[in-house]
Model the fold of this input.
Amino acid sequence: MNIYLVGGAVRDKHLGYPYSERDWVVVGARPEEMEAQGFTPVGKDFPVFLHPKTREEYALARTERKTAPGYTGFQFHTAPDVSLEDDLARRDLTINAMAEDRNGNLVDPYGGAKDLASKTLRHVSPAFIEDPVRVLRVARFAARYHHLGFTIAEETLTLMRQMVDSGEVDHLVPERVWKEMEKALGERHPEVFVQSLRDCGALAKILPEVDALFGVPQPEQHHPEIDTGLHCLMVLQQAAVLSAAIPVRFAALVHDLGKGTTPEEEWPRHIGHEQRTLPLLDTLCERIAAPKEHKRLARLVAEYHTHCHRALELKPTTLLKVLKAADAFRKPQQFEGFLLCCEADARGRTGLEQRDYPQADYLRTALRECQSIDNREIAAQGFTGQAFGEALDRERLARLQALKRA
Ligand code: ATP
Ligand code: MG
Done:
């Protein structure tokens, strides 16, 4: 049997990009031979094994045949006579379809090295259209390698559009969408993922509430970029600069969904968009199986980001209301995420990318002031139960009043 390093590790090695995971392909072996050598079988649908020592994945070379819509609609074929070239042919992009033998020689039948050099994300074969997950993967790689100058090949984008038009993309299951989306949000330029989905038309299917924001104007005075969709991409980019946390980046992207349903006669103003966002957000989260933590932060940012922008003008009672709504006393970390999203929102505007955002520190101080209250002193005054809560709030308001005057 012959063993080859394949996939992301070969690609990233050649790019000089850090990688942590190595995938291997085994040519000319049967499952029994793998097990005899101590490998543990793990694949449900096709033969994949874990190495007895490294626990890395070793897959028998295979071909596939499309049998039904969706990314599970494949029949796999493995046999000792399936060649390395056969196996590489079923892969999505040429840069992902290179292999390296045990002596470090590159096997590159589909021009991956050339596409790496020209920074092109290009499909391997017309069979690309058989798996809708590839639309998400290509958009994700575009996000990951954007800073290196990579773009999607025009003919690949054409196939992606075809998969949208044919309805193949409709067969994506929520869990799979979230898995790819989560990875994409973790990249350096997550906004390129969203933009790439938009470029091929998939955004209207996967995140229609976000797609609807493009073409919706906002007041130029606060939003020189005018377009709401563009604004949301810029906010996402700013969020990625401010935080590596996926919930923060997700919330940044979806914080303004309600602007997509503002009656046109009210444009470019969007009074009440905060509340209008909430049901749209719930629908979106369900469609892509976004986890609870992400949804909770997104709802919070959607509902209260405009409060945060006005933090320095807020009455102490309103400030306290925001702190409580954000569950800041019990979840200070979530509150910090909220503040970062609001800062990203303030900076995700053309020409305002570097602006100061004193509101965030003001609210951090407000929370700290409230946290520094000694509960024992309130208890010592004889307050219990509901009266205790009221006395605590009176003390909090006194502190917030003092902060406002300072
Ligand atoms: P990452 O760095 O994100 O792990 P990767 O390219 O290694 O990127 P994996 O999901 O680990 O991605 O998959 C390993 C390899 O398997 C890919 O490089 C590609 O060759 C192939 N592959 C994975 N998913 C698909 C798919 N849906 N369609 C075609 N080929 C795929
Ligand atoms: Mg990988």
About this structure: The mean pLDDT is 96.
